[in-house]
Amino acid sequence: MKSALVSGTALLLAAGSVALAAPTSAAPSTSYVGITGTGDSAIALDASGRLFAMAGSTIRIYSSPTNLTNPTTCSITLESGATDASFMTLDSSGRIYLSFQNQDKVNVYANPLTSCTSAPLQSIPTAADPRGIAVDSSGNLWVASYGADSVTKFSNPATSPAIATFYIVSGGPQGIALDGAGYAYVTTTNVFRVYKADLTAGTVTFTNLGLTGLNTPLGITAQSNGLIQVINNGSDLLTEYLTTDGSTSPISSVDAGLYSAGQGLYFVVGPQSGDFYVGSNNGRLTSVSGMGIPPAADGSSQAPPPILQQLPANANGTCTNISDAQFAYGTGLTGGWRVAWGEWLNDRKGGPVCSRTLVYDVNTSRWTINA
């Protein structure tokens, strides 16, 4: 166990449990969620598990990917000649980044939850045909440019003039993902490949992983445990790979196109509440369960351990009306707190705390609360 200080209150959690995902205890499965909008409907998730989706010039914000009703909306100004954006991402401050492939631009917009501002904060010229975009923990923007066979790093463009650094990635770069552990992954569609780069190295080089089972790979997501998930527009398969052991074959795959009405699959985001979400170019959203945890050495699954959470009780010694959204870690869970005794409180003299445990249910492929 480790103790962290959050807004002046102590919170106990299992070490390393910052992002929660599902174990691969069974073959992956899919289910239809709904329609997020029209056109390509680029999608993204924020740290609280909210789903952002583009519908023309409107950003739709859903409280959860599983609840596509009553979204918050924000209308923005697109680049001249653009009918929608190609890809979307967010930074840690909630700012929206949109790539416009025919205009060779990435625009940065204010956090629409705090300020729905139609005009972009920044408009960043890019190499030809920008597609996938990602923002790292330092605020640097990474852009995969299909038409220039390159990946470009822009130094903190949301708050200062961007300084560009170029890297060659041949084969038509499309999607890009950062794993939070210092690695970047890029898909290419002219040649079916995934490239990987160590961004902490003195010389950053994108190297072909030699993966099999790829067919027009587009969107990609990555986790710090070395797993990546790739959506293949040519086969409708979401394929998962472990990139830390030298293997090249998928460790799991699933047909993610069952609910796309024959339209191409472009985007994949997640995990959120243990699931990944695949978006098509007609706005249909599909959830995928059963990916995200690497297999053990003997080939069996590694279910994540239960996660104990505790924080000081209210002044009257109760656990009512606790604001716990920041403690959900993308699961969307709330409530379930009970009064207990915390030995760590008051300089280890002890005191009343609110306690709950997050437990993964292998039968439903969901995180649950066991108070």
Detailed description of the structure:
The chain is mostly beta strands. It contains one helix and 30 strands. It has one helix at residues 345-348, and strands at 2-6, 9-13, 29-35, 43-45, 51-55, 58-62, 72-75, 87-90, 96-100, 105-109, 122-125, 130-135, 141-145, 150-154, 164-168, 173-178, 183-188, 193-198, 207-208, 217-222, 227-232, 237-242, 252-255, 265-272, 275-280, 284-289, 307-312, 338-342, 351-361, 366-370. The strands form eight sheets. Strands 3-26-25-24 form a four-stranded antiparallel β-sheet, with no helix packed on it. Strands 4-5-6-7 form a four-stranded antiparallel β-sheet, with no helix packed on it. The protein has a four-stranded antiparallel β-sheet with strand order 8-9-10-11, with no helix packed on it. A hairpin with a 4-residue loop joins strand 17 (183-188) and strand 18 (193-198). The chain starts with a strand and ends with a strand.
Report the principal-axis shape: globular
- What portion of residues is helical? under 10%
Number of helices: 1
If strands are numbered along the chain, what order do they take across the biggest sheet? 3-26-25-24
Secondary-structure class: mainly beta
Q: Tell me the distance between the termini.
A: 17 Å
What amount of the residues lies in strands?
35-45%
Mean pLDDT: 85
Uncertain residue ranges: 1-19, 21-25
Describe the biggest sheet? 4 strands, antiparallel
Total beta-strand segments: 30
Radius of gyration: 21 Å
Characteristic key phrases:
disordered N terminus; globular; mainly beta; single chain; four-stranded antiparallel β-sheet; 371 residues
